[in-house]
Amino acid sequence: MKTANEHLQQYIDEQDAAERMLPMVGTLYRQRGVIVTVFGRKLLSSSTIDIIKAHRLARQTVNDKVSVEETMKVLEAIVATKPGSCRIDLGLLTVKARGVGSLNDEDFVAEHVGKVLAHIPQTVSLLDEPRDIVLYGFGRIGRIMARLLIERTTSANPLRLRAIVVRGGRDGDLQKRASLLRRDSIHGPFNGDITVDEENSAIIANGNFIKVIYANQPEDIDYGDYGISDALIVDNTGIFKDEAALSRHLVPGASRVLLTAPAGGAIKNIVFGVNESDVKEDDKIVCAASCTTNAITPVLKAINDEYGIQNGHVETVHSYTNDQNLIDNYHTAERRGRSAPLNMVLTSTGAAKAVSKALPELEGKLTGNAIRVPTPNVSMAVCNLNLDKATDRDALNAYMREVAFNGDLKQQIDYSFSTEVVSSDFVGTPEPAIFDSVATIVDGNRCVLYVWYDNEYGYSTQVLRVLQLMAGLHIQNVP
Fold first, then answer.
1. pLDDT digits (tens, 9 = 90+) for 368-393
2. I want to staple 149 with a disulfide (CB 3.0 to 4.6 A). Which of 85, 161, 339, 440 is the partner?
3. Domain that holds residue 150
């Protein structure tokens, strides 16, 4: 058993290693376009404590445990290799290196890392020219998308947030928009510097010049007037939902549209990680589905792949949203006129049916409903499923743990093992679904699964992935 001094010294050593990792992680991203993670936990913009916590979490949930000191040695070898743009899971790479040699042998580590990264092109930027992005609407999803795009802006990142389109234009509007980007009651302060250029109607965030365009409808805009061309328009308004309406965004200077709400008609509803291969270069309009669809579809795919789903029901316990009333007032929808902070509100959701647009094999097998509850963010889906084959709780949880940490859906599914977590613990979780293993119920071929999701941030990371795909970014994963 370690003494108190030994525990303290171990922590000091971990801090030292984590502090040495920080500049390497930043340099790799800014200069090489390399995203570094530890078992899926992104290290960019992390603190030393964040890095230590990422390793501690891995120790509790992954059979192959690694230390901060071990990953630092592998990270040093990565920096020396100078790879091109890619996403490297430092945890998995360290485990694989340790499995075939000693991490104390610098020559071996350098050789192993070099072999693993040999297939990665040395290209720093994955596009020849930066791609212009326009956010149409600046509500909850619009502002989080802005944060995600701004914090990723480097010489290696070819996506450029060029403009935001909003209604209004009243005195003080620009300052208000900047303030809402700068401060957020749920997600905290913006990580960087924001100033306002009143003369040019722009927000300057971390060096990004973002034009604020005031318009009442898409047809009022010619993006060429602002030096914007071939732009990807991200519609965050939720107003335009069919092909005819969304086609109105294809004005001069705009080439493609991505919708951040469920779409009707023949528009492709994409859940990244599940059916992103459906997106073709000639698709002018694409939909990133809903937050709930992005939460449940990866989990349902994983379960269906292993056990088969006969049928089931999905009940979403969803945080209230801006379309509800603060106090009782008129509303066109049933029940939603009642006070959101004071009531649980039974309502409908099309998320269960929308799953089949990404997973056709589940067509007609799922029903769904929703309850809006008095929390501002983070929701839960309760999936009551009848399976093709029987299993038990331990086996199902073990399978989902493997999926979350080592499977193709590790960017879409996080895995929770704590008996104490509540909704606020998942604010800012980048995965669109968090599988709560403690709550899992299994009885033969019937199971009840509990899936948390940050219906704002987690969903926005999925939108960003679809946006990157539409822009032609295909980021390779290592290993």
1. 999 999 999 999 999 999 999 999 99
2. 161
3. 131-261
